[in-house]
Amino acid sequence: MTDEPSSSTEIRHAPLAGVIGLPIAHSRSPRLHGHWLKRYGIEGSYLAMPVRPEHLADVLRVLPRAGFVGLNVTIPHKEAVLTLADVVTDRAALIGAANTLIFRPDGKIHADNTDGYGFIANLRQNAPDWDPQAGPAAVIGAGGAARAVVASLLDSGVRELRITNRTRIRSEQIKAEFGARLVVYDWAQAGNMLEGAATVVNATSLGMTGKQALRVPLDALSSDALVTDLVYTPLMTPLLIEARQRGCRVVDGLGMLLHQAAPGFERWFGQRPEVDEETRQVLLE
Ligand code: NAP
């Protein structure tokens, strides 16, 4: 006789979730989800796992069998998981990338993108009187995060969305996919697109610690504009510092990181987590 359960015996254990990427050691997600698990007294774990692209399909097949209920996905797997998922939400398909997977009890993998949700939730929380229809939005950058920002701004009712990117073809591509409300500006004329803009977003990695600064001139920026940066290291980027000096409302990018994590946590662990000052402090420690 053996004490091991037979294959038909149901194995019950606390739910597991995590984040996969490469590299992954820098991820703050385990700290964030670990904080929420503790706060709500939930028995469960959230792990950071380095996964090579050639192992991605195997990992997604095996983890549900090992008790995982879902994953966050980061670079370089955000696009590839779409081809491996059974169900892809419309917004993930439109953005062309997923950051949240749910391993459903029926064995299907559900892929979603919550970056756009996190972006808007951050603005709503930290600039409650922000009105997406107050005037044109100006998005600097055309990478993966910019696509999520564009989708969510259009969803929120922005009537004109101006976009610029160092590699112009990427902003042209976004316009081709997202439609007539977009206007492409040349990178060399990026300052001009701030004229009359009500919402200004840096969705490039410029301004991040160790990277070059964003050099778009802010002379045309109105003091009525709301300015936000996806970069959150440092919290107050040179863009936000200068915009604040010019009288603009500014919102840092940390709240987006916190809010984009909430839907996944709720689906995996059954509790909608609150994003508040205490949660922010956990990531700033
Ligand atoms: P990505 O797909 O690699 O795109 C990078 C963007 O930055 C592109 O528009 C790229 O322009 C631009 N860029 C990079 N180096 C540049 C340079 N030297 N000069 C001009 N433009 C440059 O990255 P991503 O996923 O979109 O992320 C963009 C930033 O957002 C990162 O800093 C990331 O950490 C941050 N982010 C924050 C959150 C949050 O929750 N706050 C969420 C997602 C992302 P080209 O196309 O010309 O290369």
Structural class: alpha/beta
- Would you report the number of β strands? 12
Radius of gyration from CA coordinates: 20 Å
Topology as H/E string? EHEHEHEHEEHEHEHEEEHEHH
| Parts with pLDDT < 50 across at least 5 consecutive residues | none
Bound molecules: NADP nicotinamide-adenine-dinucleotide phosphate
Count up the domains.
Answer: 2
Mean pLDDT: 95
- Summarize the biggest pleated sheet: 6 strands, mixed
CATH topology of the largest domain: Rossmann fold
Helix content: 25-40%
Q: Name the CATH architecture of the largest domain.
A: 3-Layer(aba) Sandwich
- The CATH homologous superfamily name of the largest domain equals NAD(P)-binding Rossmann-like Domain
Strand order of the largest sheet: 2-1-3-5-6-4
Q: What distance separates the N and C termini?
A: 51 Å
* Overall 3D shape: globular
Number of helices: 10
CATH class of the largest domain, anyone? Alpha Beta
Q: How much of the sequence is in beta strands? A: 15-25%
